Amino acid sequence: MADKPLLSIIITSCTMERMGDIYELLDSVKAQTYSNIETIFVAESSRELYEKVKIYIVEKAIPNAKVLFNDGEPGLSAGRNVGIQQSKGEIIAFIDDDVVLSPKWPEEMIKSYNDGSVIGVTGSAFPLWEDKSMSWFPEELYWIISCTAWCGWDEVKKVRNAWGMNMSFRREAFERCSLFSNEFGFHKGSMAEDNEFSLRVRSQTEKSIIYSPRVRLWHRVHKYRLSQEFIRERAYWIGHSRRMMKKLHSESDKSLDLLSQEHQLLKRIFTRLFPNIAKTFFTDPVSAWRKLRVTVAALTFVTLGYYSYLIPTLSNRYKTTQR
Questions:
Q1: Location of each CATH 3.90.550.10 domain in the chain
Q2: Which of 163-167, 188-192, 240-244, 311-315 has the lowest mean pLDDT?
Q3: Nearest-CA neighbor of 143 among 10, 320, 269, 57?
Q4: Which of 89, 144, 160, 318 is packed most tightly, with the most Cβ within 10 A?
Q5: How far apart are CA 165 and CA 148, in angstroms?
Q6: Any idea which architecture 1-226 has in CATH?
Q7: 109: exposed, middle or buried (C-beta count within 10 Å: 0-12, 13-18, 19+)?
């Protein structure tokens, strides 16, 4: 790989409601220490969004950036595929539209590919709270808000899958394994797109996906993400997704524990989080009750989602109640 390969960063969005978040993200892209970057923004559903991002990129003189509009099949995977097809980078990265990159994010991303056996890289995500009063939320449940403290990893390691808010792959992955499948995603009541693609790439290339804590960003956490409704729905579909993952991929390698990450997290919840909540009941009962309620809700709905995959009528009933 060249010393300074081109890194294509693909961002997708479909709503004007995140305009401020998108501007802040683009500012963080411009502030990077690594210069060989191509930024591709893919808008969907909103022509106004498309036009405003185009104007902002010109006003801020963000180099080597372009804005596309997805007027084909809608969806996160479809939008990202539009970006991939227009990208030129040897490494193709994907981030959410409500994150802020650390100044050395692309530099650390590129360094992670020094090992030729690495096909994909994923990194850490820290919460950027809309309000500091939200920081009570337990780290063990950060998977609900697309942040990474739940894993407790502080060093580079091989992982099962990349996380869509902060991930990249060699172009080779798309040349050999095709693009993202728009048949997957929580909006489809299915396995997450990033999980499905990661497992497909690992299987077909026999190369590794690694996690690097130095590939860091901040993920904005709006207040609605801590609502009971959001937590229940998110937990349910994550549980459903994990059962689907186990069902579809366990046959390829029966010796592999596909859910080892989840088992480790569950152990941490019962051996660390619950005891800490119990201790806090004596000093801060309001906070303790709040943490207990959200933890029980998350575990309950993850379990319901996991077993609903085995009982299609239960899954269909839940979909109906969410409309």
A1: 1-226
A2: 311-315
A3: 269
A4: 144
A5: 10
A6: Alpha-Beta Complex (3.90)
A7: buried
